[in-house]
Model the fold of this input.
Amino acid sequence: MPLHIIRQDITRMETDAIVNAANPTLLGGGGVDGAIHKAAGKGLLLECMKLGGCKIGMAKLTSAHKLPCRYVIHTVGPKWKGGTGGEKELLKSCYRESLKLALEKECKSVAFPLISSGVYGYPKDKALKVAIDVIGDFLLENEMTVYIVIFDKASYQISEKLFADITEYIDDNYAFAHVESRLERSCRAPKMCSESCAAPVFLDKCPTFSGTLINNLAQIDESFSQMLLRKIDEKGMTDAQCYKKANIDRKLFSKIRSDVNYKPSKPTVIAFAISLELPLDEAEDMLKKAGFALSHSNKFDIIIEYFISKGKYDIHEINEALFAFDQSLLGA
Ligand code: APR
Done:
């Protein structure tokens, strides 16, 4: 999974690099800055003293001293002044400049705190959105594993409206915990073909439909990975576009591509359905190919159904919401 959101103390991360939300002096402070300096030991301060400070929106790299990672990337976020002083662009620059340094050092993994969302007062939901957007764009072009590290529940907020919308959707659907498969619904009565034939006939007599029927029967036999590859072609996507939009790493995708009977996990199937922007019925078809179904007695499934039914296919936005509801994330 290229982009993770996890609950952790960043000083424990064993990634190649961790990012510090510092101040322009780079001489330590409170919050995550204080925690990193404390865990790294005096050596980090001595190294930082030679850096001559850091401008807001920029980043500088040091070694990690006693920390379990290899490097510390110090970046200085903007103080929140209401959002009209260019804070968003400066915060974006913090993530971009830190990722650039991580790339230069050929880091395979990097962990970020939510920069500026503590002492510097950047609204937490906006700070999270900036982080997800910049890191998400970076990962479309680069191979790296990035962690957004959430220190405590209080420091994590998605937009109030989105949280309220999803809560309402869960309440409405979770109550009716009956699952009626689309197949049952669609097979209730024979369909009359009215589009292509002059007089309504039963579909299996209609020449147009029988062609579709053969096609559909062929699709019933196809495996999950065959359906996935067919859909990628139909959508005119490249493999890379598909797995990156699904927050799936290249290695896993090549395993799926080379094994016609590959058995994916449910979050992996859903991640691809989101990446392909499948409507609900096709997403359910893809799940069925892998032996799964969406269920109204499962909060994770209802949140997925919420986003698909609203036509919202940004996998990182969905993961933000899943994390807020203590659910596992999409991707692998
Ligand atoms: N691990 C991960 N995240 C942490 C940790 C930790 N050990 N400690 C704090 N955080 C989180 C906070 O919960 C917040 O979400 O880091 C995020 C950033 O908060 P701050 O550390 O307050 O950083 P920031 O808001 O950017 O303010 C920077 O604070 O510490 C001083 O010297 C620093 O002056 C600078 C200012």
